[in-house]
Amino acid sequence: MDISRSECIYTACYCEENIWKLCKKVCDFSDAALIESCWVIFLSNSERCVPIFKQMKAPRPDHPVF
């Protein structure tokens, strides 16, 4: 299955919603066997913030986005 970036819905600063929309697109265009082998994991901690490196919103590629 090939999904191009231009086919996906993207909203800046809404990571979880973007993943939800991507998963929905995969479900819409895939068979059940592929869907059952897919996983999505959201990382968090007690402070509810996780540094994620190399994001487009980072000031530099080696800086995290909080």
UniProtKB/TrEMBL annotation:
Q: How does it assemble?
A: Monomer.
Question: Reaction catalysed?
Answer: N-terminal L-glutaminyl-[protein] + H2O = N-terminal L-glutamyl-[protein] + NH4(+)
The keyword Hydrolase belongs to this UniProt entry's keyword annotation: yes
* InterPro entries in the record: N_Gln_amidohydro_ab_roll_sf (IPR037132), NTAQ1 (IPR039733), Prot_N_Gln_amidohydro_ab_roll (IPR023128)
**Top-rank EC class of the record's enzyme:** hydrolase
Keyword Hydrolase assigned to the entry: answer is: yes
* Family assignment from sequence similarity: Belongs to the NTAQ1 family.
Listed A to Z, the keywords are:
Hydrolase
Species name for this entry? Hypsibius exemplaris
Question: Which Pfam families does the record associate with it?
Answer: Nt_Gln_amidase
**Which protein is depicted?**
Protein N-terminal glutamine amidohydrolase
What is the role of the protein in this entry? Mediates the side-chain deamidation of N-terminal glutamine residues to glutamate, an important step in N-end rule pathway of protein degradation. Conversion of the resulting N-terminal glutamine to glutamate renders the protein susceptible to arginylation, polyubiquitination and degradation as specified by the N-end rule. Does not act on substrates with internal or C-terminal glutamine and does not act on non-glutamine residues in any position.
Quote one Gene Ontology molecular function term.
Answer: protein-N-terminal asparagine amidohydrolase activity
Please give the GO cellular component terms listed in this UniProt entry: cytosol; nucleus
Query: So which domain of life are we looking at?
Result: Eukaryota
- What are the Protein N-terminal glutamine amidohydrolase alpha beta roll domain coordinates in residue numbering? 10-65
Q: What is its EC number?
A: 3.5.1.122
